[in-house]
Recover the amino acids of this structure.
């Protein structure tokens, strides 16, 4: 039986970003067991196994999504409320040392819990690397898309300047120039 972290092409940061970006706008790819299966299959794991995704495991994945987004927001200078992640302390994991050491779901066989265990292991490894501060969440309040900041000086703030960045800059511009119309300035001179 294949484990989530063993599929080629899905490294630690990629898995974290994939889990974090499962909800955007109206779409929630972790809404239920069927959507978790479809999301996982869409990542290229189709046909790997037929384990079910149980509701408790799906809830764990949603909690991990919030935690990853919160930590990525912190990397982008925003202090998030991580209190919802407190429930993740009850996630039962076991250390497996046969072969390469890894974390596994305490009770294997639930696809969502197995993905959750692989995600926790990926999070622990990624946060220990020097590149972790580059994993960021968009500052756009209606976005929060998680991305890798590839800028030279780690200064990227938005998922895409063309969308969220421009929208934020327009809000700042309007706030700065509110109440200072050219007509008002001419009459006061």
């Amino acid at each position: 039986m294949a484990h989530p972290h063993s599929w080629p092409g899905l490294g630690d940061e990629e898995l974290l970003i994939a889990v974090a970006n499962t909800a955007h706008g109206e779409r929630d790819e972790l809404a239920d067991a069927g959507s978790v299966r479809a999301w996982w299959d869409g990542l290229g794991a189709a046909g790997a196994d037929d384990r079910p995704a149980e509701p408790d495991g799906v809830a764990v994945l949603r909690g991990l999504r919030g935690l990853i987004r919160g930590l990525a927001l912190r990397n982008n200078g925003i202090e998030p409320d991580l209190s919802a992640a407190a429930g993740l302390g009850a996630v039962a994991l076991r250390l497996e040392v046969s072969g390469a050491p890894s974390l596994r779901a305490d009770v294997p066989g639930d696809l969502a819990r197995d993905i959750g265990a692989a995600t926790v292991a990926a999070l622990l490894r990624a946060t220990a690397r020097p590149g972790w501060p580059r994993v960021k969440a968009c500052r756009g309040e209606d976005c929060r898309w998680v991305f890798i900041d590839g800028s030279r000086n780690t200064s990227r703030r938005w998922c895409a300047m063309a969308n969220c960045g421009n929208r934020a800059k327009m809000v700042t511009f309007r706030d700065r120039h509110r109440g200072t119309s050219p007509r008002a300035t001419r009459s006061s001179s």
